[in-house]
Amino acid sequence: METRCTMRSSSAHNLKSGLSLWLILWLVLVKPCRVAACPSLCVCYPTPMTVSCQSQNLTLVPAGVPYDSQRVFLQNNRITELRADSFGFETQVLWLYGNNITWIEAGAFSNLRVLEELDLGDNPLLRRLEGGAFRGLEKLQSLHMHRCKLAALPHDLFHKLYSLQFLYLQENQLHFLQDDLFSDLVNLNHLFLHGNRIRALSENAFRGLVNLDRLLLHDNRIRQVNRRAFRDLGRVTILYLFNNSLAELPGQTMKDVQGIQFLRLNGNPWSCGCEARPLWEWFRKARISSSELMCTSPSPRRGQDLRFLRELDFALCPLPDPGSLAGTTTTTFSTKTRWWFSKNKPASSSKASYQKNTEMGKAFPFSGVKPQFLPKTPDESFSSKYELSDDEVALPKLDPEEYWANYGNEDASIRCFELECPPGYDNPAFPSSSPSLITPSLLNLLSFSIITLSLHFLFG
């Protein structure tokens, strides 16, 4: 019995010793440690192979990085240059942010054929890039170049980066975007350009970005957007243009972003005269989440939200010219608007006073007078999808008979200069609605009747 107990005690001791040995081996294998091939001042982790050399005051990319390293961390050092022979290894993730990089040689990353993420952000001395700086990175998916003081980007900088999905260029000093700069980035999903100094968006600035989902352009100095600048952005769902210098957007611009869901346009000096009508009409049809758009001009509309203006606010505006590539307007008024002008014009009116100009329709030219609500005609209707205010309800209503009595009888000073005249308006055969006019045919008929009656009395 005593022997059996001794054997059990010995077996238990051996089992504990074996478990302890396995625990020590496990800790040795799993615990991060230096390996024989790890560069000086770096720490290497074997699974997955990671080389961490961050915050070591390195001025060059260290030699001896294992070729099969999957991740290499070189951030927060003092590296100044990246040359074509700087990277003798193959990695998927490379972090170089927070260094003193001033120059990147063309082809510097060409050996990194399987690189998927490259972070060059927070390099404040990096002011320019060579055209072929990212040559060979055809599997790159994420590229960070934020806060680098870049003033311009070479036209071929992103050439053949077909796999790129995320591009971070915010908070640089970019003044413009070259045409077709992003044309090869057919799979780009996020583009961050906020916090730069961009002044205009040209027609081909975003050409090729057919899969872009998010475009951030806020905190720039954008004053002008070409009417076709967003023509390839049909899949964009988030667009930020707030805190720029935009006074207007062409009518076609927003129609091209058909999938938009979140739009921010606040912080711009919006002009809410006739030039705002295309954007206002787009908002009437769009079903999106949008910021406010506060008007800064004309003065009567200052502080109003452009989205909530009424159709009456644009009653005197010329209609858009559908054939104009620039999205401009032409002086084309409805017949009812011309008649309203003839009834309310100042005594010294002339054709010149109604010629097309940029201020037309921004404010009513007659003090205290607003256009009345006119009845529909057979040819055209006057949309009234807004609620009438108390002042408008109090205005005298137009008698339909008075309207038809004056239809087509506008003053000659504004008569049909490129306007929508009714059919036969200038044709002598077009019947006049004024009872005081006697046509030649009626005069001939009356003369013939008098002669016939005289002959009847004479020869009874």
UniProtKB/TrEMBL annotation:
Listed GO biological process terms: positive regulation of Rho protein signal transduction
Keyword set includes Hydrolase: no
According to the record, the signal peptide region is: 1-37
Pfam families named among the record's database cross-references = LRR_8
Residue ranges of the LRRCT domain?
268-318
Report domain LRRNT positions: 37-71
Give the family from UniProt: Belongs to the Nogo receptor family.
Q: What is this protein called?
A: Putative reticulon-4 receptor-like 2
State the species of origin.
Answer: Scophthalmus maximus
Q: Which gene encodes it?
A: rtn4rl2b
